[in-house]
Amino acid sequence: MSEKHHIEMEQATGVIWPARYSPNVAPVHVRNEIIIAAPPEVVWAWLIRATNWPTWYSNSQNVRQSDGIQLQDLALGSVFRWKTFGVAICSTVREFQPFNRLAWDAQGFGVDAYHAWVLTAHNEGCHVLTEETQYGWGARLLDFLMPQRMWKGHELWLSSLRDKSLQGKPLEYALGQV
I need a surface site. Which of 15, 77, 136, 167 has the fewest CB within 10 A? Predict the structure, then answer.
């Protein structure tokens, strides 16, 4: 396979990394994936409704728009504050392709990260890939002290996303209010 074809395949099915956050250079990297027996549109609806994350993903708290106003669904350029892994984070959505790609950066005390999601239709429903890279003394310290912490947190996020997606779209979507 030519290098050009390999890059095109990776971009079609994998994360498109900003150079700074590439797993080849970042000191901390984790990759998790799952197949969910629901269409990508349903999985997407749960994923972009960030203010609801704390109701089904216990590792997220206090998700809100950066200015404190009620955060609507995530969109390209959305800036939101939240707490995850015990760290207060400010994130900006950097990639947004409905039903397919979502990524945000994340800055907090001792952490500079990039978290991406890729949803792909699969014969069993939806393949969900999530990857994150991190820089910073806090990220390195936690990775050293608890090397599986982020991987386990993302496994929980994926299994919780699966459980919610198997229930159908969030109520607001089901009622056609969005």
Answer: 77
